[in-house]
Amino acid sequence: MAGQRPVGVITRGTTNPNRLRRCDRWLAGPQAWRLRRAEGAPVVVDLGYGASPVTAVELHERLRRVRPDVEVVGIEIDPARVAAARPLARPGLRFAVGGFEVPLPDARRPVVVRAFNVLRQYDEQAVADAWATTVARLAPDGLLVDGTCDELGRLAAWVAVTAHGPRTLTLSWRLRGLERPGLVAERLPKALIHRNVPGEGVHALLEALDDTWRRQAPLASYGVRQRFVGAAAALREAGWPVLGGPTRWRLGELTVAWDAVAPRR
What domain of life (predicted)? Predict the structure, then answer.
């Protein structure tokens, strides 16, 4: 891929420390098997990390607790951002210029590519091609995480994409002070944010989640976590394909099968 022009456009680049902690916790939790199963040092890419490399640094710190030999590569399309980040490089962490084509030396293939707050700045029609380009670079059983979050990482949502297409949607909240779960709608990934309208699965999901949240109000006296766990359990009982269980729900995290929210038109 030497000499190939990076695929994509420069984003605004805004970021903050600890902004992507919710996704990192998910990668180091339910998805940790991808790192542990890898033969040799697994490669994880922070794609489009922005004007500051802090999210790539944090990702390396968190994932090496799962797999000490993990290699994190921060990839940015803007050469100036890469040059600014390189003084922070260290064993297991480096930075490179690139885009959705995910340029890595020696034909290496990443186990995970995390692209947060990147595709949100593209047209919805560009999402499928960007997913396909990146997924083609993944290792077997590799994962692309396309997500969006607010400026402080209190609300987040991401799609897990594999060689078989999108598999799940995960929503994550800072539970303390949460008014209602449906507020995460403003942070849906680009593939879904314009689909939050009547007749679409993601709209029905958020409506159902707000309804179960209201119905679990009596549990608020036991704390917001208990209320959220009750809402997630009620959502599953209502027939929604909710994955995981109370351990993740207590963290303010809810994952559903993609088929339930996939765009219908």
Answer: Bacteria
Mean pLDDT split into 10-residue runs, the chain, 265 residues: 69 82 98 96 96 96 98 96 96 96 89 96 94 96 97 97 98 97 97 97 98 97 97 98 97 98 91
Of 108, 139, 163, at which residue does a domain stop? 163
Domain that holds residue 180: 174-257
- Residue (of 1, 31, 30, 48) closest to 190 by Cα position: 48
Is residue 85 within 8 A of residue 116, CB to CB? The reply is no
Q: Give domain status of residue 115, yes or no.
A: yes
Question: Is 168 part of any domain?
Answer: no
Q: State which of 163, 194, 227 marks the end of a domain.
A: 163
Q: Are residues 215 and 159 in the same domain?
A: no
DSSP letter for each residue of 146-210: EEEE-TTSSEEEEEEEETTEEEEEEEEE--TT---GGGGGGG--HHHHTT-STTSHHHHHHHHHH
Beta bridge partners of 157: 148, 171
d(CA 68, CA 55): 18
